Description:
single chain; alpha/beta; 26 strands; disordered N terminus
Amino acid sequence: MLRCGKKHICAVVACIIFGSILICSWKDLQLQNNITRKFFPQATTASPAGQLCRGKPAQNAITALKDNRTFIISPYFDDRESKVTRVIGIVHHKDVKQLYCWFCCPPDGKIYASKAKIDVHSDRFGFPYGAADIVCLEPENCDPTHVSIHQSPRGNIDQLPRFEIKNRKAETFSVDFTVCISAMFGNYNNVLQFIQSMEMYKILGVQKVVIYKNNCSHLMEEVLKFYVEEGTVEIIPWPINSHLKVSSKWHFMQDGTHIGYYGQITALNDCIYRNMQRSKFVVLNDADEIILPLKHPDWKSMMSSLQEQNPGTGIFLFENHIFPETVSTHMFNISSWNTVPGVNILQHVHREPDRKDVFNPKKMIIDPRKVIQTSVHSVLRAYGNSVNVPMDVALIYHCRVPLQGNLPRESLIRDTTLWRYNLSLVMNVNKVLYQTVL
């Protein structure tokens, strides 16, 4: 009896220990399920094992959701803080209150609906629609390749557009400098200045130019086709006026328009994330702007020096200076160029002086991996520091209509920095013109 009792006691102890393990395991499972439910309100098997997300693949650069208040550009994987999918989009700042990311996890095909944080960028300038980050925490033990966006955690995924999540795979930098131009609109036809800017970018070290194109002239289309075939230009179609009433101004004028300057800020943010893993630097400027180094021959040597002097800096801001197209010199009056529409920048080397109590706007060269959100003239959120580059190091050559149109010629500052590149620039522009326009 005594031995039998000992065995019984041992058995009871073993049962208690085993039961405790089961209870703990059950509690851990419940805790995990609670966490899952908190971030992913719905988790159901929706497709056979091995099948990726269903739904219709998104075909356009701008995709309207059924609410017609949310427009999706593209999702990007972002693990700089936590494992999230960051969807670049445009939303109505008041009407869009709730969105969900529907992830499909290979190989078992389970669908997880994760509630999104909707972060409308602060630089909306009064317009009802603005650039937005739609950010969703990704499921544990899942590397989703596609995502759908919906107003509810429930529904039929077959009816939702499906977006590929870019930047999922780490890449080595394929280029040093990418220029982002947004947006080309208004039947753009400044052909000569565009070619000159493109050739200057290449002389300065640019390997890729990304253009968000709304529309341009037929002649400009021919030039873009040349640069695309050459491998320099990537065109992102940008039919934003098919979805929203766009303004060609940057601030809201109470005129019934929905978004400013053809959604420029959204395009710039998309361009940063699009090039985050393939370009060492991203340059945010317009087609009539050129960052001219004064102490260095090109951007690579300039940026190497600036980074050495400013460790930890991810955003470099350059002052914009106007070279009015109304004031010209007789130099570089090349007869064959006179038949090409647009401005000949080599003939405009007088810049407007600084105005008292007026800050010159800036454009940027950034390390895209250190930027979270950008506006046009400054970065809104970033991991790295920002630095204003002194004018004796570099300035932005901006040839356009004057801002100080009443100034006499003698009040302008003659600045021939651009002419340092004239031999290469003239030769390269001629090559492009003879293959496209002339």
